[in-house]
Protein 1
Amino acid sequence: GEDVEQSLFLSVREGDSSVINCTYTDSSSTYLYWYKQEPGAGLQLLTYIFSNMDMKQDQRLTVLLNKKDKHLSLRIADTQTGDSAIYFCAESPPLYGGATNKLIFGTGTLLAVQP
Amino acid sequence: EAGVAQSPRYKIIEKRQSVAFWCNPISGHATLYWYQQILGQGPKLLIQFQNNGVVDDSQLPKDRFSAERLKGVDSTLKIQPAKLEDSAVYLCASSLFTSGKSYEQYFGPGTRLTVT
């Protein structure tokens, strides 16, 4: 099936690290993504990782990929109140011989940052 | 660079009425997507265009939903007749590349549809 799973809610204190977890379904997905959605806004791509990588770091963001367990995580260092949003992981399975690159999103994790 | 534009931002209709949404992708982006995001869920792809051709419409409820992308630029998504379960945010996205390459899908702000 096409179920990308995430925990629904995470609460952290400002300045702490946040870790958002995701389990995806298709081991042949070439790219895996993290998107951020603020209230009333569209989705913003935060970062992505190629499937042959284990880790990617981009400023305060660290993505870890465990292909064996099909587990993806996003770590946000020094979390700020402005990081409060819904975070979606997404996979892009190579369907239809590669002719489509639709994103399959998880249910989203609401990150609440307490001052 | 201008982003993906969508209109209207909000729409309230009664069930069995029809509604249309409009999307203008980023200039030069050949690929355009329509996603449906029901409250509390992640977006789900409805249809993907490559230029003005349909690449994937496997999850589009074709008995009531239709979409077109004339001239390979702007796109419209129509629902006729609407049902209560169509209440959702409809997101349009565009990207430069398609399969085989890393790409970014740039999302518009969405149209929030409420069906009463």
Note: The mean pLDDT of chain A is 89.
Protein 2
Amino acid sequence: AAGVIQSPRHLIKEKRETATLKCYPIPRHDTVYWYQQGPGQDPQFLISFYEKMQSDKGSIPDRFSAQQFSDYHSELNMSSLELGDSALYFCASSALQRGTEAFFGQGTRLTVV
Amino acid sequence: KQEVTQIPAALSVPEGENLVLNCSFTDSAIYNLQWFRQDPGKGLTSLLLIQSSQREQTSGRLNASLDKSSGRSTLYIAASQPGDSATYLCAVRTSGGNTPLVFGKGTRLSVIA
């Protein structure tokens, strides 16, 4: 079965650079979520989209933005990167008509140096 | 604000033992609850989803129960194996089918051969 695909898997950036993370949800899933997980931490919700419209916003810094495109893939754009942005970034998707079970991608490990 | 607590934070058991992981949440008005497994540096794998109207779900050696009124869920693992070693995360969806999951900090399980 198709899973949530994230790219790239690993990313190394310098401070003050920008990064773009991509997420391809499971086909026919209507909701996409972005989470950030620091070392030894639980996943923290950043932002979500339902049917390509932003639906909920969590602890997402103003330096970050996200959008969902017509083909349902989503991108998380991160600017003015800081050392503290180093983390695992997960994308998840779910479908209202399928019990809303959330499925997570393998994540993008971002390292800011 | 929904808060999710998992006890214990870490657990070490000998192979073959049955064990119980605990999850509690402060707002009992949940939509559903999901248990995940996470291996170090990897993505989250969905184990079980319990809707708010359900009392338990089973998958193989795993059984999850939900007591919404008391704000508690348990994950029971039967006949534990070294391959079960991982961090187990509990997450609740507070309202609506496409609202974000709120995670606990997880229980780190080690099964010793």
Note: The first strand of chain A starts at residue 5 and ends at 7.
